[in-house]
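Suppose a colleague, Dr. K., hands you the sequence of a protein chain of 153 amino acids and asks what its three-dimensional shape might be. Before reaching for any lab equipment, you can write down a predicted structure in C-alpha cell form. Begin with the sequence itself:
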Amino acid sequence: MTGDFGVNVMKTVIFYTKNAVFKFNQKEVRYNLIGKKPKYALDEVSKLLKLISTDGDDTILNSDDHNYFGYVALDLIGSRKGIAACKFCDKTYDARQLKEFTLGHRKSPFDVKHKQKGGIRLFEKRKNPSLFGGKGYTCPAGHTLISMETWRT
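The predicted structure, expressed as C-alpha cells, is then:
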C-alpha cells in the first residue's frame, strides 16, 4: 500500500512496555504467530491474530492488557525484526542493536553448563537448581527494554 506521494506505508504492531515502545511489521508478526503456533498458547495466538489485521490500521498493544505479546516480541527481536524506542535514553534502535541477556537461571531449562577438567567436559553439578529462567533485551546503553520469564520448574 502506498501513502501520500507514493511512499510505501508499512502497517505496524506497536507494543508499549514500561521501558520501551516496540514497532514490528504486521506481516512479520502474523507470519511469526502462524509459523510458531505450536510454541505459543493457541488461544492467545487466536486472540492476537484477530487483533492484528493486515487490512486495518496500525495495531497498538499495551503490555498491561496484552502481556502475552511480550513472548512474541522476544521471538521477533531474537530474529532481528523490529525497532525499539528506549524511554530512558530517548533513542530508537534497530533490533540488531539490542543486547540479549539471561533472566534467572538460563534462557531454557535444557541449557546445561559444562566444566572443563583435564580435557574432559563434565556436566556442572548444581546444588540448588533455579526455579525459573528467561531472557530479555537491553538497549546499547544498557537500559532494560523487555524481559520475560519463559520457563519455570
